[in-house]
Amino acid sequence: MVSTTVHLLRHGEVHNPDGILYGRLPGYRLSDRGQAMAKIVADHLTSTGRDVVRVVASPLQRAQETAAPVAQGFGLELATDDRIIEADNRLEGQRVADGGGALSSPRNWPLLWNPFRPSWGEPYTQQVTRMRAAVEDARRAAEGHEIVLVSHQLPVWLTRRSFEGGTLWHDPRNRQCNLASLTSLHFEDDRFVGLHYTEPAAELYPGASKVAGA
C-alpha cells in the first residue's frame, strides 16, 4: 500500500488596505505579515521532515509568493496550475470591507438570489471539479511522497467538504481555512483515508483571531 499526502496550502495575508474583493485581479501581493507567514509555513514543513517532492501554485501573485519559500526550502522548482486559482466572482473589484460596499448596493442584489449555487460567481460544483482533478493529478505525480498545492480559501474549503462528504453550501464565517493554513489530504493508494488541518502561522494572526480574506 502506497501512502501519499496532498497539502492544500492557503496563501498568506494580502496587502489590501482598501478592503477590495480582489478575486482574480492582478497585482495583489502578500503584505509584510503575509510574507512572514509564508516563511513560517516553509520552515514548518522543512523542519518536520516532510517528504515534499513537488510544489504547485495558483497563477495569482499571492499564491506564487506564498509558494516560493516552500519550493526554495525543498530545493524544488515552483510549478503553476490554473485549476487551483481563486473562484471567479462577479463582485470582484468592489469594496466589501466592514460589511458594506458591494453587498449593500442595490445594483448587486440580483446577483445574490441563490447562495446555494452561488449566483454571484463560479458555481461551487465547478470549483470542486477543477480542484479535485488537480488533487488527483498531484497525488499521482507525488505517489508515495508529499506535494503542496497553494490555493485560496474557498476552493480549498469546498474541496475539503467534498472529500468529507459535506454539503457545498455553507456559512462563510465557519470555514476552517485560515491564512497560510494547511489542509492535508491523506491517501492510501488512490483511496482518500482522512485529512489533517493545521495553522503553522497562527502566531501572526491579529489578536490570535481568525483573519478575513480570500
Task: Tell me what you see in this structure.
- The chain starts with a strand and ends in a 16-residue tail after the last strand.
- The protein has one domain: Phosphoglycerate mutase-like (Rossmann fold).
- 28% of the residues lie in helices and 18% in strands.
- The longest helix is centred in the middle third of the chain and has 18 residues.
- The C terminus is likely disordered.
- By secondary structure, it is α/β, with parallel strands linked by helices.
Please supply descriptive tags for the structure shown above:
six-stranded mixed sheet, about 210 residues, alpha/beta, 4 helices, disordered C terminus, single chain, Rossmann fold, globular
Question: Care to give the gist of this entry?
Answer:
By secondary structure, this protein is of the alpha/beta class. Helix content is 28%, strand content 18%.
Characterize the quaternary organization of these chains. Answer: single chain
- Could you tell me the number of beta strands? 6
CATH topology: Rossmann fold
Strand order of the largest sheet: 3-2-4-1-5-6
What is the rounded distance between the termini? 36 Å
- Global Rg: 17 Å
Task: Please give the count of helices.
Answer: 4
Reading off the top of the CATH hierarchy, the class is best stated as: Alpha Beta
Run of helices and strands: EHEHEHEHEE
- Outline, from the CA principal axes? globular
Any low-confidence stretches, pLDDT <50, length ≥5?
209-213
Tally of structural domains? 1
Helical content, roughly? 25-40%
Structural class: alpha/beta
CATH architecture: 3-Layer(aba) Sandwich
Strand content: 15-25%
Largest sheet: 6 strands, mixed
The chain-level mean pLDDT equals 92
Q: CATH homologous superfamily - what is it? A: Phosphoglycerate mutase-like
